[in-house]
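Supplementary Methods S3. Input chains for the assembly prediction are listed below.
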Amino acid sequence: MAPRTLSKSDFKLARSCDAKLFFRENGYPDNRDMNPYLALLAEGGYMVEALAKAKYADGVQLEYGRGVADDYQRTIDKLGRDHVTLFEATLLVGRQQARVDILEKKGNIVRLLEVKSKSFDGAEHILSLSAGRAGALRAVKKPFKIFAKWEEMLEDITFQVLLLEKVLPGVIIKPFLVLVDTSKTAGLDNIPSLFELVRRTSADGTSRLATARYIGSPEQLTALDLVTEVDVSEEVAMLRDDVEEAAAKFESRLDEPLSVHSVDIERGSKCGSCEFKVGEDIEKSGFKECWGPLAEPKPHMLELFSIGKCKGLDGSPLVDWMLRQQKASLLDIPEDCLVTKDGSIGANAERQRRQIEYTRRGEVFVSTDLRGNIEALGEPMYFIDFETSRLALPYHHGMRPYGLVAFQWSCHKVASHGQQPTHAEWLNKTDVWPNRLFVESLREAIGDSGSVLTWSHFEGTTIKQIMPELLRFGHDVPNLQAWMTDVVANRIVDLHDWALHDYYNPGMRGRTGIKVVLDALWKSDAVMRKQFEAWTGMVADESRDPYASLPPVEISGVLQDVHEGTGAMRAYQEMMYGADKHDPEKKEMWAGLLQRYCELDTLSMVLILEHWRRSVGLA
Ligand code: SF4
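Predicted structure tokens for the full assembly:
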């Protein structure tokens, strides 16, 4: 077996918690492998990287994968040239290794470029520098500390610089982050089609996205000025001592047991979202190793809504304090810990106390306000849900990176309480900036009066974001703008707020997403299931909520499904820009997947409101 090495991603992982390096090196299951949002981000990241590389026409792409030592030797051979640009050069010093996105060597000067798909405002950066400040990655006041959100990326490039200094002693190294610049706009339409995503199949037969290639013309590349190279020499100088020390520590531990890795670890609320906290049925679990018997209690304290903000009785973080008492059950959290800084009980603490109390009693909480809230709803009621996309490299001419594309809405209309809902929907299928059509079609569906019900602030925020964009894209439509203003200011009612403040079901376990709430009610509410059957003509499976029951659809030989917003973004991308974009039949299959998912979100809202009406004696 090849000796373990410390890669830059190992370094990054270990920086977030020392014990994670042990779990990574020893093959513990990692729940991020299954995260569709990260997979979508990875696709965007590969395209940004391909765009950054395309600007270096003479760059040599180095193949890798035959072993780090071989890869390193090939890099060294190429670096023998006086002038050379390498993509994916391998650096290896001791057991520390890094693959460099772009390395440009011109005599004694080497530029090291790390490409990131993170958004950055290039105009603001220049303004800051010209005003004598330190740029957009640093605070505006002296001593111009590095913003926390940039630290991880800057440590990553510092790690590479430290290795390169040892590989090429005596050269002058200039480090740059290549970032997606939101102050620029796309000069072309249909940008994703200018890239080819390359997949590799590994020995176990699984196919993984490996890289992307730019396949557009040089002229199109000129119009694709969407990334900016940012000199980070100063930031690297600020971080180098820390990074060097930490990298040496992690390198020395590569073969050590968990007891060595976990010397300095602090278990805390962060463990709730640890990538090594996997399903309870999976035996090999990093979380279970770290927490031992304190991983077991059910309900667990990490289920407490917003536990990260709570303090123990001695003022230390609550999770820490509980662990010192050798306790981890939600039901063991003392009520006295659930207060605000000044000792009063704020909205959060009230929710937390309610969660514990009603979980202990196994009962449902319904506030005294819920009935009045429902009675105050104006009729008709329109339950709406939007699907949108924000990609690093945008779809349409004139858009900024990560610009908003509102591509789908679903609406269930209920004329008056208890009546069968009727459904309307809209999905963009043409390759144009769709946001105006999105709003106009929505207006036709929901008109000028009646309540507009949502399950988050997202729909209102989306409408607000489209308003200034209409003018920027040349659509002078004051009447439509006035309608949008009215919807946001006077008509939207956020049912999620009610789930937060006016209702609690122990099955929600501190969470309030629509799928969680529907699932918590579905199994115990036979009336809800009957309504579902009557309104949809489908059979209600008592053991699984409708989201879990959505069967996958086979498209081009692959089973596809859409269960969450990221899945919707991916399906839209496939429908509009994927391999099947010119096949009307396949396009319709993608559209069908999108429509049934979005429709279920709005139907779920109707079902939940009906449940609440029954809970308060209105039905
Ligand atoms: S469970 Fe907590 S302590 Fe253990 S690796 Fe994860 S974050 Fe670190």
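The mean pLDDT is 92. The CA atoms of residues 202 and 533 lie 44 Å apart.
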